[in-house]
Specification:
By secondary structure, this protein is an alpha/beta fold. It has twelve helices and ten strands. Helix 2 crosses helix 9. The radius of gyration is 29 Å and the shape is globular. Bound molecules: zinc ion. The site of zinc ion has 8 residues, from helix 6.
Length: about 425
């Protein structure tokens, strides 16, 4: 049994790595492991496969993945920026990612990661850079179309196979799709939405003082000026009228969680994660994330133990290898390297290849008997109604007769 551990999410964005919460040793897992539902094919060891859409050479992994999408009923999906690259939104850590480009654009001394640290509000210059970055991300997200992979996740949810989607993305692309809705703020008690935004989202702005929340307005976040909260302002003016002393006016900020700061949804995320662990998830996909954030690493580690205890399978889909950390040893059963946007195509191709009759196979005994008896000819002739159909039937008859004649001639010789 998996010891369900409440994931404390306050350190979600903390930079320090946390100790692994291993629940089942690999040796024990090996003994207990029996797959149910049975997948048609399962890799004995997680050799990385390269995703490809142009041939069926890697049919084995396609079959496994297809089996998972068709048979598992409580799939956990953990995604990162990699799933939105196809929508034109840059990721964070790749060579073309935001951390790299921001370092160049803003001539930062350190990595662009500092632009996502709570310290951005410490001086005017970094506040202005932060606002500029948030505005450009917001504008990209607003203009972006959901990708095929986002649609695949929505389909999974509509087929009632998705237990939960945990997203680190703040672009809010997934939550626009049916079956992938979220709730802001995240409720501490069930029912929880399908999508859990681990780091908030750019669709909302919030007052740091009174907690008022509204739709993100990019016009307010220009330059180094931090916008004031109108709710706080109104309250303050009312207090002034009745002669009470001012309580101050709060500042607005995008409702995203920065490094080294408190996550307002932390407690709720801990509760939903705990509930999902108890729900015995039977499959997990970890897609487009390098798993650098400790809180997310812990979710993946604990969920993978729960999935393995339920005889399920954990799949890694990314351009890069999984992290080499000891906590992820024996964590991934199938490693697929490449663009996750190829997955829908690979599944479709595999499905089509299975529904097509195989070429080069001998006809069945029944089919051969019918052919020999000339039933196929008469059946087609009986169905033929249009002139064109009749013509085809005639050609078929003649060919067949010619064939028989040839056969006879051959026999006579
Ligand atoms: Zn306020």
């Amino acid at each position: 049994m998996v010891r369900s551990t409440i994931v404390v999410m306050e350190d979600l964005m903390a930079v320090e790595s946390s100790a692994p919460a291993t629940t089942i040793s690999p040796a024990d897992r090996g003994k207990k492991r029996k797959r149910n539902p049975q997948l048609p094919w399962c890799p004995s060891r997680p050799s990385p496969y390269k995703l490809c859409t142009d041939n069926a050479a890697d049919e084995q992994y396609a079959e496994t993945l297809h089996g998972m999408f068709r048979k598992c009923r409580r799939i956990i999906v953990v995604v990162g920026a990699g799933i939105s690259v196809g929508a034109g939104i840059p990721d964070f850590r790749s060579s073309r990612g935001l951390f790299r480009t921001m370092k160049d654009d803003f001539k930062l001394k350190g990595s662009g990661q500092s632009m996502f640290d709570s310290s951005v509000y410490q001086d005017e210059a970094t506040t202005a850079m932060f606002h500029s970055m948030v505005n450009s991300l917001h504008s990209l997200s607003q203009g972006a179309e959901v990708t095929k992979f986002h649609q695949l996740l929505s389909q999974l949810s509509m087929e009632r196979r998705l237990l939960r989607l945990y997203t680190q993305n703040v672009d809010c692309l997934e939550i626009s799709l049916s079956g992938l809705e979220t709730a802001v703020p995240l409720p501490v008690k069930a029912p929880w939405p399908k999508t859990i935004q681990l780091h908030g989202g750019l669709q909302k702005m919030v007052c740091a003082k009174c907690g008022w929340m509204g739709t993100f307005d990019p016009k307010l976040f220009q330059g180094s000026r931090i916008p004031e909260c109108t709710e706080c302002k109104e309250l303050d003016s009312v207090r002034e009228v009745v002669g009470k002393r001012t309580q101050g006016v709060g500042r607005l900020r995008p409702r995203i969680v920065l490094y080294n700061e408190f996550n307002p949804d932390g407690e709720a995320i801990g509760k939903v994660t705990s509930a999902d662990l108890k729900a015995r998830p039977d499959g997990m996909l970890v897609v487009g994330t390098s798993l650098k954030v400790p809180g997310v690493r812990r979710i993946v580690k604990e969920m993978s133990s729960a999935v393995h205890a339920a005889s399920g399978m954990v799949v890694w889909i990314n351009e890069e290898d999984p992290p080499a950390a000891k906590m992820f040893e024996n964590c991934f059963d199938l490693i697929l390297k490449g663009d996750c946007q190829d997955i829908p195509c690979i599944l479709e191709r595999w499905e089509n290849s299975k529904s097509r009759p195989k070429r080069g196979l001998a006809p069945s005994k029944k089919q051969k008997a019918l052919e020999d008896a000339g039933d196929i000819v008469s059946s087609i002739a009986g169905k033929a109604k249009s002139g064109r159909d009749r013509k085809i039937t005639d050609v078929f008859k003649i060919t067949k007769m010619a064939g028989e004649k040839e056969k006879r001639v051959k026999l006579e010789n």
